[in-house]
Amino acid sequence: MTAAPTSRGRVVASGVGLDYDGSTALDDASIEVHAGEFFTLLGPSGSGKTTLLRIIAGLLDPQRGRVAIDDVDVTHTPTQKRDIGFVFQNYALFPHLTVAENVEFGLKIRKVRSDARAARVAEILELTALGGLGDRYPAQLSGGQQQRVALGRALAQRPRVLLLDEPLGALDRALREDLGAEIRRIQQEAQTTAIYVTHDQDEAFILSDRMGVMRDGRIQQIGTPEELYRAPNDLFVATFLGKTNLFPGEVVETTSAGTVVRIGDSLVTARPHATSDATSVYCSVRPEQLVVSDTVPTGHHKLISAVVTDSRFLGQRQTVRLAAEGIQCSADLDPYGPVPAVGERITLSVRIGESALVPRETA
Amino acid sequence: MTATDATTPIPVSSAPVLHRSRALLARWALLLPILAFYVIFFVWPILTVVLRSLSPDGKFDAAAPQFTIDNFLQLFGDDFLLLIEGRTLLLAINSTLITTALAFPTAYFISRLKRRTASLLLLLILVPFWVSIVVRLFAVTSILSPNGPLNQASIALGFGPLELLYTQGGVLVGTVMYLLPYMILVLYAGMVAVDDNLILAARTMGASPAYSFFRVYLPQLRGSLFSGALLIFILGLSFFVVPALLGGPRDQTIAVYIQQQIDIFQWGIASAMGILLLIATVVCYVGVVRIAGSFSPGGVGSVQAKGVSAELPFRWSPAMVVSAVLTVVTIAVLVIPVLFVFPLSTGETGTVVFPPRGFTLDWFVQVFTTPTWIGPIMQSTVVGLGTAALSVAIGLALARVTSGIRSTAWKAVIGGLAFAPIIAPGILLAIGIFDVELQLKLTGTVIGLILAHTVIAAPLSYALISASMAGADRGVEAAAWTLGASRTRTFWTVVVRGILPSVLGAFAIAFVTSWDEVVLALFLQTGPTKTLPVTIYKYLESGIVPTVPAVASLLVTLVVVIVVVRGVVNSIIARRRAALREEA
Amino acid sequence: MKKTASRLMIAGASSLVAVIALSSCSAPAAEEETGAGEISGDILFYDTSGGVVYEQEALTLFKDFTDDTGVTVTDDYNEAATKFFASAEAGSVPWSLVLFPTVNDAATAAEDGLLEKIDTSIVPVDDLVDGTYSEYGIEVGTFGMVLAWDDDAYPDEKPSEMADLWDLETFPGKRCFFNNPQYGWTLEAALLADGVAADELYPLDVDRALAKLDEIKGDITWWTSGAQSIESFENGSCDIGILWANRAFTALSENGFPMNITWNEAGYSNSVWSIPAGAPNAAAAQQLLKHVIENVEGQIAFASVIPTPIPASLKSLTPADFPDEVQAFLPVGSNVEGSVLQDSDYYLENLDAVLDQFNRWVGQ
After folding, report:
1. Which pLDDT value is given to residue B249?
2. Contact (CB<8Å) B201/A94
3. DSSP string, A189-210
4. Residue A3, in any domain of the structure
5. Closest chain B residue to C231, measured at CA
6. Which of A56, A79, A97 to mutate to test the interface with B (most CBs of B within 10 A)?
7. Do A85 and B205 touch (CB under 8 A)?
């Protein structure tokens, strides 16, 4: 096979909105997915991520906004003419067709010659590690195998964009991790753009080049997993991705090194706080960022004093629970380093310029 | 599944052998009376008909048995009988095709509507379904009659008089009207079970709506289509009442011919014809089970409307317009006869005419004050209640036995035998049971009719109860045992209470089956008081009196009230459940 | 002459039945002295005419009987005698009185030993015209099968003979026939129309009759019950045909339909009241027969509405004893001079074959 040109599959959704049964399912969302990129829409259930995916697929019609694939407006193009692949959460394999026939389905519609068709089916079965199962019916396969058939079927006709709607949701944990990696590998090999919907942040981190976090029908923030984790724009993104400790503070000034914020009687320099001009903020410090010590190490700012209330050994890390002037927080420490005892009064500090600030009002 | 298996206490009991043998004993104690019942009222009647069909003159002499296959040779050697057989087959095929052609778009159209609208349309199909066929046929004869509205309209529009009643066309219309609800309900259940995502998946792969309809949607309905078509074909093949009432002498079918031959004591040929119907039925049944994998009798479970999804919203397309038009035709065919009885019931004239002259409610008063109708109403009620009670008892016992059986093969055998009376041709059962009950001196007795009705009603009750018993958690039962409840007590307070809605449903379906039944009741009742549908049937044969449309109106009203109340109760329960779920 | 043959045949019925019948008859005979007061309970009546006929019986003859004796009569309508035969053969008979639609049905039943003898010590059979009763039953409700027409449809020339049914030009419109040849006079009418003399009708040339009927087969509307026959006229399904005279009278007198009839070439035949062998309350049934025969006033009241006298012919009654308007419809006296008595012996012998041939013809 010849590799599809990587310039195929740029998806732009601008101001897409949809109301359903009187409530807003999607509130004028905009994303731009680069060709060949693995893009994840991450959010809790009801956040509108599946709605956005289905609008891109043409399975739902937006009431506002436009969708373009490769700079062609497809807002009113029916699904079957969009040249996409779609993997459903329940796979939606055709129960009356064998694995090979399922994979062949889109090729037949495109009137691919039978020898080319057979070759492509074999190639897909190979790619999805389903060799030898071509004659089976979906009901005779395990969940993981069905998932790979769904993926292979969506990829067979070399779509410009592969859309995946929680494809691992129905599987158990161990299988999910394996198949997640598999999906990424297959997407890379097929050189197709992928838009992936999930509520599972681990999946999003493993798979994504970039991701968009959604909430209540809105896109909260778009970026690489690292950007979103290190520099969340708002309280929701900060708390939804991973665990964090929130210290309320007031912005004092913005310098070239970062934004200075007052927490209690300490001044802490955090990442530049640009997206909002709110002065009442939370300083978000991840448990692994929190330094627990008697004195403030160099290159760090003191946050607050605290008392150790609990300490647990969890294998990869030592989790310490702390009470700091009415704030419950936790820190992940190196289990091989010094660990404070329960009841010990210590100082919490964070590396200068590393903590993130998010506005306190969440709206 | 594994969890409930693990809690079934029999294998872990301290004295497993003793318990197992006691359970086995209990199982046989339940099974034996049912077995005896089926042998006497299902196997023996069919055997009697078989023996008659193989005996000269149709009279089997046990003392000096003589066998001949002359009757069967005549079935295929006699031009006139071949004509009747061909006509019957043609009627069954035509009505199956027309019914399917109407039922498919109707079921499809309804399945694509929003839940509220769909529920309403389903009601319009369920109400005629539950109204006795005799009542509906009474309306049809009035509509098709030479001075009925169709003919009046035709004459007024200048097309001249039409010949509708006592013609092949009339029989076909009546048969289709009878079969439509069965097919719609079977297809609708199949359609709402199809995963919308399959259609969406086909679209994402580039399939046009037509392509995905034929290559993806239709194959999912294969089982429903075959099961439904088989069901209505079998019903159409052996249906007696429609051709008997709507057909002329040249529209005789096998069932009508059988009745005619019984009237002139030609038991031999009548029995052979009955056996022919039975064989045809069994062949069709086996064929469909082979092709479709299974067979589910229609109209048993309750049908719930399912709203259309946001991804596949209702959209007008040329195909949808055609479906809508055919849906209107279907609903008209089903609903108009049911409504037509009302204007007929209020005319002042001593003969029933349309349009009615004058207005009076006297006929309704007469229904409740003359023994002509009070007797039949009482008779139908008593027979219906008796049938329902007996059917539920059999259904519970049989479901209990089959739910305890682990072997799927045995389950299939018992299930298949239990359902056999439903697909056995009604006219065959009628003559067979008539024969047997004559020998048992049960003909003409209320008990005799209750037993006969139970033969066809119990399978439906069993189907409902066994389905819900299979779905119930046996762990609950085991839990009750661990709390010290006896087995009997547990069965009634835990198991039966748990499936109470379906027990009530089983009672209702058995009652309605008996309440509406004509053919068995026609053959088996000799007393002066007949059941309601038979009384109406007699009047349809010998001439309508003005109280007939009044009774018909009352019966329709009763069904409407029951169906509407049930619908309202169901939706309240559903809403309450949804509210609870939301709170949680 | 035919009647004699029929009676001979009945007399020749199995001796066993005669013994049973005699033994069971002896008891009521002894009660004769004490009168009807001893009887009680109910008479379940296996009725094959039903409808208005029974309603009128209930208003006149049966009512009078109940008033005098306290014994009630309950109607059990069945469209044919089939169920009676099936039950009687199985030895389970709930009825005390049976109405056989034809004399030959009754003869068959007598022959098969299914009937009880009429107890002549109670029932005054001597009051009846000879040939209208037998050992096993009394003939009732003589019905005439007459040429009838809608008088408004043919304002000028009126039909006068069966051949007019085949004259589609002078008398256009659909023809109504009963789909049972025996009770419908169908084959006889065809043969008469084809020129067969009235006294040469039997044995019927069924092939010839059906060939004649083929000429108008497409113009025939078949009726299947008495009520339906006049409905067919009233709703315009036919304008001319063969009807039962009593139904024609009902159409005219009750529904005001302009029905006209002629007795010329009409057929007439009798039904039979019998008591089943081993019937419950047989004694009351014997008393009922006696009561009905003696209740001349009741007979006139009944026939004034339903012109099929019960019993068929009483020696003491002439047509002039009945109300004027009903006289033309009574199958008695001068009315039936141009009519033919249906040969029940012929049908007793040949009914199965005739029915089969006719059903095949009509069903094709």
Report:
1. 81
2. yes
3. HHT-EEEEEES-HHHHHHH-SE
4. no
5. B543
6. A79
7. yes
Residues A60 and A151 in one domain: yes
Residue pLDDT, tens place only, B86-108: 999 999 999 999 999 999 999 99
Residues A21 and A147 in one domain: yes
CATH 1.10.3720.10 for domain B69-345, yes or no, is yes
The sign one gets for the Cα dihedral B234, B235, B239, B242 is negative
> Does C135 or C352 have the greater pLDDT score?
C135
CB C351 within 8 A of CB B68: no
Tell me which chain B residues have a C-beta less than 8 angstroms from the C-beta of C50. 538, 542
Specify whether A181 is located in the same domain as A309.
no
Number of domains making up chain C = 2
From A200, A230, A260, give the residue that closes a domain: A230
Q: How confident is the model at residue C142 (pLDDT cuts 50, 70, 90)?
A: confident
Q: Are residues C113 and C131 in the same domain?
A: yes
Last residue of a domain, one of A182, A201, A230: A230
Cβ distance A41 to A26 under 8 Å? no
- CA pair distance B325, A265, nearest whole angstrom: 78
Is A2 within a domain? no
Per-residue pLDDT band for A13 (boundaries 50, 70, 90) equals very high
Looking up residue C121, the CATH number of its domain turns out to be 3.40.190.10
Q: What's the ipTM?
A: 0.85
Q: Residues A18, A139: one domain?
A: yes
Question: What is the arithmetic mean of pLDDT over B162-189?
Answer: 89
pLDDT digit string, tens, across residues A141-194: 998 899 999 999 998 988 999 999 998 887 787 778 888 888 888 888 888 899
Arithmetic mean of pLDDT over chain B: 84
- In this complex, the chains that touch B, judged by 3 or more CB pairs closer than 8 A, are A, C
Nearest alpha-carbon partner for C160 in C338, C341, C342: C338
Quick one: A38 and A129 in the same domain?
yes
**Does residue A56 lie in a domain region?**
yes
**Which CATH class name applies to B1-28+360-545?**
mainly alpha
Q: Give SS3 for C326.
A: helix
Structural domain for C226, as ranges: 143-267+346-362
Q: Please list every residue in chain B whose beta carbon sits closer than 8 Å to the beta carbon of residue A79.
A: 200, 203-204
> For residue A90, which residues of chain B lie inside 8 Å, CB to CB?
195, 197
Q: Which of A62-76, B249-263, B473-487, C131-145 has the highest mean pLDDT?
A: A62-76
Same domain membership, residue C286 and residue C184:
no
Give Cβ neighbours of residue A180 (< 8 Å, ≥ 6 apart). Answer: A168, A203, A206, A207
Among residues B341, B340, B337, B342, the alpha carbon closest in space to that of B176 is found at B337
Domain that holds residue A192: 11-230
The two structure tokens encoding residue B324: 């809508």
**Which strands form A318-324's sheet, in the order they lie side by side?**
A291-293, A345-351, A300-313, A318-324, A327-333
Residues of C in contact with B161 (CB under 8 A): 236
User: Chain centroid to CA B229: how far?
Assistant: 14
DSSP H helical ranges for B345-499:
362-369, 371-404, 408-423, 426-439, 446-471, 474-482, 487-490, 497-498
Chains C and A touch (3+ CB pairs under 8 A): no
Sorted by where each begins, the domain ranges of chain B are 1-28+360-545, 69-345
Are C221 and C291 found together in one domain?
no
Neighbours of B581 (CB within 10 A): 8
* Partner-chain contact C87 B526, CB within 8 Å: yes
In this structure, the answer to whether residues A322 and A339 fall within a common structural domain is yes
Residues C29 and C105 reside in one and the same domain: yes
The pLDDT tens digits for A291-313 are 998 888 988 999 899 999 999 99
| Chains A and B, touching by 3 or more CB pairs within 8 angstroms | yes
Task: Note whether A174 and A75 are same-domain residues.
Answer: yes
